[in-house]
Request: fold
Amino acid sequence: MLSSILHLLQKQPVLTLFLILGIGYLIGGFKIRGFSLGSVAGVLFAGLFFGHFGFKMSPGAQSVGFALFIFSVGYQAGPRFFDVLMEDGLKYFLLALFIACTGLGLSVLAAKIMTLPPGTAAGILAGGLTSSPTLAAAQEAIRSGNMSPPAGVSPDTVIGNITTGYAITYIFGLAGLIAIIKLMPGLLGIDLAAEARRIEGETSSSGSATSSGPTPAIEIRIYRVDNEAFTQIPVSELKKRYWDGFSVVRVEREDEPCTLSPDDHLQLGDIVTILGKLDYFTDEIKALGEEITAQRCTRELSDTAQVIVTHKDTVGKTLGELDLARNFGVLLTEIRRMRIPLNPTPELTLKKGDILTVTGPADHIDLLGEKLGVIERDIAETDMLTFALGIAAGSLLGLLSVKIGGISIGLGSAGGLLTSGLVIGFLRSVRPTFGRLPDAARWIFMEFGLLIFMAGVGLRAGGDIVETFLQAGPKLMLAGIIVTVTPVALGYLFGRKILKIPAVLLLGAITGSMTSGASLSVVTAEAKSPVPALGYTGAYAFANVLLTIAGSIILFF
Reply:
């Protein structure tokens, strides 16, 4: 029975690939006490299982997945990468660089001391730092021929060693990092919650903290003022008592829009339309008077769009300064920076590439788009011309090299695609009509491309993984522990003593330097605050780039 199934699958590569992806997602999503491997590791292990039975993937299909993933990584980082580098991101760049270099050095040293086979160091680095771009770059450098394996060693053997090193060290890299980040505050005697409150008070003007939950429901409600108490209070006092700073309030008097000054008063019979989050409509608000929402059409208020911040005169301003509700008549429902949701407080400073989701009248949203940058309203199309030529240009750039001392030096496939993605992503932020790649499309390109690549990695290495594990498993586990723990410890000391980064921000930055969103959630939970995301977003902008480059560099050693 098993042989018949295997025989069928051998003849159906599409069926086999998507079966691996599906099984991988099941494995990655399975939780034990809140811990899960994630989709990337799940697909890798599923691929290793099928590879053990002799299944293979076309190298071309794997290369396509690699190109989609690496280019999309660069595209995502592009809008913020150069800006962060030029602003206050130097500290976070140095931290990400320090952790990447520390991990690289330790991986090379461990491989030398333990006499591990060629390529294993790259796998240890990728697994110990839980970095998929590192693994992808190292694998592709060997597969494409940009890096030659040692004499007498085949490329397949080196790729297998990279995969084995990653597979064995990744589990501790993921779980161990979470445990370390959770334990560090207690061991060091740091009150993260108190420090987070202090940071919120001192640097709220530059905050970029993550939101604490899903986007709340939005409601439009209309009231006829019949409570005399509200007519006795001037508008300035009503605003102070009842306005949350974001809800849109519109007043009509005798069926005409009415603009009230701070000293004016509401009158009985006024119609008050409120566009706000569901939890804003408390009993105090409802006390305005009779709700007449059902009697009036509210469709003209219900348009929703995303606005991307690109204009220079808007970058650096706070949400409070812009006052979207009063100046544009729109409700801000969500704001994201590099795919990280932020808390939309009045003190939040906007950065280039921030994406604001707003609800309100269509013409008001259009005005906001003119002020902030560009509007994306129900846009599903990707600029496939730029996307395709960008990947082609990155691939071509990766082929270029110069000889220095008899050694060919070049960006390689990973570096070329990453550079192309960075440039196009940055140009997109400067000229929004160029290189459109909607967030959903970018996610599927990154996720699907990476998982295709990881499936190929597993299939290619599956035949020898059992033997390799029996030979070097304990050594790899020890090396992985060292490469995970040491960069965190040294990175913390470097960040505190040299860079002078506050602990609550530093722990977030360390998780960003190791591209671990799961660890960030642990820090924010311990801090009882979203403040650690300040550090995460700063370091994350550089970490993917640096760790991708490290995946190719480590093969020189």
